[in-house]
Amino acid sequence: MTRTAAVTRAGEPSARVGLVAVTVGWAAVLARALILSGPDLRRAYVIGMVLFLAMLLVVVVRRPRATPALHIVFAAQAAIVLVLYALDTDHDFLTTLLVLECYEAAVVFAGSTRLVWIALLVAAIGGSLVLAIGPLHGLALALIPMAAGIVLAMFAVAGGELEAARVQSAAMVADLRVAQEQLQAYAGQVDELAAIEQRSRLARELQASVSGTLAGALEASAATRASLDDPDAATSQLERLQALTQQALAQMRRIIAELRPPASAEARAAAELRPSAAETPTAAEHAGSE
After folding, report:
1. What is the DSSP secondary structure assignment for residue 277, as one 8-state letter?
2. What is the pLDDT of residues 82-107, one digit of tens each?
3. Most C-beta atoms within 10 A of its C-beta, which of 112, 137, 181, 225?
4. Which of 58, 35, 32, 34 is closest to 46 using CA atoms?
5. How far apart are CA 87 and CA 160, in angstroms?
């Protein structure tokens, strides 16, 4: 799985929660509008609010790039809300749809574009209520939805940043795990190369020292055989042969000692081969078997 796919998959749960919350808020506004409106306005409210929700869901789900067409969609949504509110200024709760659009802007846009759209939508909430109801009463009613739009947008931004940070941390942990596995593989290769180098050194040492000593011992044995008629010369060659043999034996012991594993490894191997106390029959068991 690529990192982009991981980010997309990790962001799906929070996106679903946001969509559910937005849909529930939209449904509550629609239900209240249908209850409080007369028959002549219900159709207009249904058409306008369904169109608003369709645009919102398409934008939030698809999350297109910030193109001029996307800005036109946002402007159209805000216009739909303002027109629906203009049909009956007693329905000040319709400005809640602009709060939902603040969430939409926080999810889709980034940077200064996000701030501009949130500011425009919050200003549209306050401005529409002030113009329709009056400065004092309108501002009093607008404070709560304006604050709700800002808080909801901040919540969406913070949630996205936390989700991105969590996914980035998970990706870093995965990268560190891969790096650790590579280091372990490199360490094994280094140990193997060290063992090969040691074997090569011992082979060269065997050829240089032990082989030379054994060749000298062969020469001494041949000289001893040739001087069997001369006891003094034979004794000298035998002493030389004995010295060369002892020298070769000492060299072989030293090389074997280098090949032997460390004491700790040897102790562990012996412990593994030694039968455990549970497997070793006790004296009582011997007596019982007898």
Report:
1. T
2. 999 999 999 999 999 999 999 999 98
3. 137
4. 34
5. 36
